[in-house]
Structures are given as structure tokens and as C-alpha cells.
Amino acid sequence: MKKLFTTLSNIWKIQELRERIVFTLVILLVYRFVSHVVLPGVDATALGDNQKSGILGLLDMFAGGSFSRVSILALGVMPYISASIVVQLLGIAVPSFQKMQKEGESGRNKLNQITRYLTVVITAVQAVGYVKTQVPKEAILIDPTLFFVLSTFVLSAGTLFVMWLGEKITDKGIGNGVSLIIMVGIIARLPMALYQEITSRVIVDGGLIALVLEIVALFAVVMFTILIVQGVRKVPVQYAKRIVGNRQFGGVRQYIPLKVNAAGVMPIIFAQALMFIPTTLTQFFPTLQNTWLIQFSDPTSLAYSLTFAFLIIAFTFFYTAITVNPVQMSDDMKKNGGFIPGLKPGLDTSSFIDDVISKITFPGSVFLAIIAILPSLAVKFGIKSEFAHFYGGTSLLILVGVVLDTLQQVESYLLMRHYDGLMKTGRVTGRTGVPAANASGSSAVI
Length: 446
Hints:
Blueprint: H1 2-13, H2 15-34, H3 54-62, H4 66-69, H5 78-93, H6 95-101, H7 105-133, H8 144-172, H9 177-187, H10 190-204, H11 208-230, E1 232-239, E2 242-244, E3 247-249, E4 253-259, H12 266-284, H13 302-323, H14 326-335, E5 338-339, H15 347-380, H16 385-388, H17 393-416
Antiparallel strand pairs: 1-4, 1-5, 2-3
Helix pairs in contact: 2-8, 2-9, 5-6, 5-7, 6-7, 7-8, 8-9, 9-17, 11-17, 12-13, 13-15, 14-15
Main location: membrane
Protein name: Protein translocase subunit SecY
Keywords: Cell membrane, Membrane, Protein transport, Translocation, Transmembrane, Transmembrane helix, Transport
């Protein structure tokens, strides 16, 4: 406990860090306040129980509940995330985007500008769909045509406002702004979910021991998730000696940290999108409800869990293959005078890196699939569905990843001022430890 208070005191002594933390907290409070402002022309009391499930529930989670509240920030940062993913994929397939990725700071600025423009387009399209399908007609108080035009404009402005808040946090605050906004939206659900679980276990069932076991199990799952997020395979790289004037450069051994889970949460998001297709089909074609497709309407069924796990493993390999480029890593090492001991630069090096990535991606994908289906297993054991979401899936992976990244930045400020780090031994490592040679200039937002 003394170590904790000492660390907090050291953090508060650093003026720049203190100002960044306060600025971040203020911006997040502004976001949470505005997220409760309902669209103009909507009767909030007429919304009733507007909770979402399926893919809409996932969007509602990312938006911090604004989606179901018909808030002016209902679309949240999802259009920006979608635009970022599209630009990232274009950087793999389109030569002009690849060229911009290699132009350094100027190239990144161009890509960021393209991402912003694309965000506006995606937001406008999603705003139209949201107003048409998600706003109950009985809750609209003004002329429907006027409401449609006004709401489309307000929703687009709301997403741009959230994107601006995220960029301000990144520039003047601490941590990645967009990721922190998503994390705050997820955490906002935790108090109510925990209250419901305590009420169910202690007051209704009288199962205090069961509640304690649930908390212990959640702690173990969080520790397991941290291991997956931080797990790396270090590949040694030797740099040749260079003499420039009277000084010697190079001649040292470094490491390329190849992550066990280089794909992050994207495989789970892609797999979830596909798993909602059977449910959508049964809604449009009622005759299919008596077929085998009905099994995929229940996330706790064995067929759903096995299919979901298989898709996650497949998408992990796919997403890792398109985001981690062994050939580019090999070329970058060769340009900088680096080589892997015992291997020739070029084809041998890229083949070795590709082989290592393939070997570590399989266990990483299996562990990711286990984390993804843990909420379904938690429901099977009698845990309320709201609280079960924190036992795995996108919620837990985002929370763990964002917290680690933020703590890593805080620790870097402490070490720069010659204070002790956040831990007695070792250092906090977040998700930023991507392969050093993969200087593509693009990265996933989440």
C-alpha cells in the first residue's frame, strides 16, 4: 500500500503528466455527459426498454449505451474505426497507399486526412440507416421528414465531435483517445451489471460463496487475458558495426517482438458479424426457424460456440497475414544493416519470420477463441448475461489492452524523471510492442 501511495505521489509531482491526466478525465466526463443528450424531436420517455442484442448490442457497447438511448452520439466512434480499418486494408492492396505509408510523418498526415473524409461518408450512410430503423416512430414528436434530415445531420456532427475529442486526448492527454472513449463506454456498464449480479446471488439466492467464486474466476480470466495481450516471441537481430568519423554505430543485438496475438480483437469482431447472419435470415424468412439454423440463435449452444471458435481461429490467421508482412520486415532489416544470426538477409530471413509467425499464431488464435466463448460458458454457470460480458470477448480484450497502453505511457513519464516504475520488477508493456520492422504507418484503432 505504501508503494501505491508513493507511486501516486510521484505521478502528481510531474506537472506535464498531471496536466495530461486531468485533461483526459475532463474530456471523458464531457463525452459521458453529452452521450446522454437525446436527439432533438425525440421523446425520451417513449423509448421504453430499447436495449439491443446481437451486432446492434455490440455497437451499443462501443457507443457506451448511446445507441439504445437514441443519443446525439449514438453512432459513437464506430464510423471512424470502420474508416481506419478500410484505410489500413487499402495500404496493403493499393500501391499509392503503400507509398504514403512509407513517407513518414507527411504520409501519415495524408492517411489521417483520408480517414477523416471517409469517416464523414460512412457516418452519413450509417446515420440514414439508424434514423430509418432504430428510432421508434411513436417517440418522434416532430414532422418525420424534418426529423430525418435534422437527425442525420446531428448524428454525423456527433460522430465528428467524438472523433475530435479522441484526437484531443491523444494530442494533449494520456493514452489513445479513441480507445479510451470506447473503454469508458464499456466500463460504464460494469456498475449496473455488478449490482444485478450481487442482487441475484446474495439477496435472491443467498449465494455469497458463489459470488466470491465468480469474482475470483473473473480475476483469473483477466490475468489470462493479460498474458495473451502481452505474449511475444523475441527474434534476435544483430546489427553490423559502422564507423562514422571517430564514433562506432551498430554492433548490438536487439529483438523483434512478434506478438502471439497480433490481430487484437478484430477476429472476434469479424466472426461475430458472420455469426449474426443465420439469425438475420430466420427473421426475414420465418420458415427457416424450424431448421438447423435456429441453433445459431442461441450463443450458449454447442454448435454456436464451436462455429464461433473456428471462425475466430480462421480470421486470426487471415488478419495476421495481411497486417504483418515478413518480406517488408526483412527488407527493412537489410536496409538498416540488420540480420538474424545464422540466416542470410532476404528470402531466408523472411521465410524464417513467416514460419515463426505461423507457429505462434495458432496457439494465440486458440487462446483468443477460448476468451471469446468464455461469456457463453459464464451464462451456462448461472451468471447474469450483463455481467458475463466482462468474462471475455471484445469487452475484456479492449479493457485490458487500453489499460496496459495507458499505464505504459504513465510509466514512461515516471522513468524519464528518474522515478521508480509502476511495478517492483520489470516494466509495463502494452500493445504498442508491434514488430519494429513493420513500419507500415497504419495500425488498428482498437
